[in-house]
Amino acid sequence: MSAILTLLENDIWTVESSHRFLGIDFGARMTVIRLKSGDLILHSPVLIDGSVKDELIKIGSVKYIVAPNKFHHLNIKQCASTFPEARVYGAPGLSTKRKDINFDGELGEDIPEQWMGEVDCLLFEGAPIQNEVVFFHQKSKTIIFTDLIFNFENQDSIGVKIFARLDGIYQKPDVPRVIRWFMLKDRDKARNSVEKILSWDFDRVSLTHKDIIESGGKEIVRKAFESI
User: Fold this and answer.
1) Cα distances (angstroms) measured from residue 189 to each of 107, 186, 195
2) How far apart (Å, rounded) are the C-alpha atoms in residues 12 and 6?
3) Where are the alpha helices (DSSP H) in the chain?
4) pLDDT of amino acid 1
5) Which end of the chain has fewer CB within 10 Å, C or N?
6) Where are the domains of the chain?
């Protein structure tokens, strides 16, 4: 799958690429947010080749690189090397896991002041193995999940379909069973995080893996988390 910059709405784009795990291509998506200043936030970077770099330079200046949970960090070092002036932010605990990366800050509710009024962040508590930080782009009413919600549809390969059925996420946007059963350590904290997420005024849901939910996202997210 070749990467290409795709406009979702003014000031928010995605780049899709391959991501193989256990021999299965689950796909991956980087979300790009342009702030009013023209600075770009790269959320969960894919591998940045020359064509993607050129397209990013055309729309703004890459100033922030984000590893939104403790699993999505594989391309951070390459991305930081491609854009050496950018500041790198990681999920809580990731700097201990990736000591080879120079992080400029840790993600959470305390965000860079340059993002204020445009981008909100929330650490999804209760799942410390993952420590995913959820993003909300106010202007486009887009919430961004990394691994907390997947959305697999009919067009996927046999391998993906089998995996999605086993994980309880086939043909419905949902929280994977592996998170529900094994990663959630404090359900009260998780439910509190869900309440905060649902207080945001979002409609679109951008997911790092598989299909974007273009509208009606709040009710879909509410339903996905109702049984945790």
Assistant:
1) 18, 6, 10
2) 9
3) 50-59, 76-82, 94-97, 158-166, 177-178, 187-198, 217-225
4) 41
5) N
6) 5-225
Q: How far apart are the first and last CA of the chain?
A: 34
CATH topology of domain 5-225: Metallo-beta-lactamase; Chain A (3.60.15)
Contact yes or no for 161/170 (Cβ under 8 A): yes
Q: How far apart are CA 89 and CA 102, in angstroms?
A: 9
**Which among 48, 42, 25 is positioned nearest to 210, based on CA atoms?**
25
pLDDT averaged per 10 residues, the chain (length 228):
79 84 70 98 96 96 98 96 98 96 91 95 97 98 96 67 66 87 95 98 92 95 93
In 3D space, the residue among 121, 143, 119 whose CA is nearest the CA of residue 203 turns out to be 143
Separation between Cα atoms, residue 126 and residue 209, nearest integer Å: 22
Q: Is 160 helix (H, G, I), strand (E, B) or coil?
A: helix
Cβ(149)–Cβ(216) below 8 Å:
no
Stated pTM of the model: 0.92
* Predicted pLDDT at 79: 98
Q: Which two tokens stand for residue 47?
A: 């591998």
What's residue 25's pLDDT? 60
Predicted pLDDT of residue 17: 78
Q: Which two tokens stand for residue 4?
A: 């290409």
Supply the DSSP string of 43-94, one letter for each residue: ES-----HHHHHHHHHH-EEEEEEE-SSS--TTHHHHHHHSTTSEEEE-TTH
Q: Rounded to whole angstroms, how far apart are CA atoms 60 and 62?
A: 7
**Residue among 217, 73, 79 nearest 149 (CA):** 217
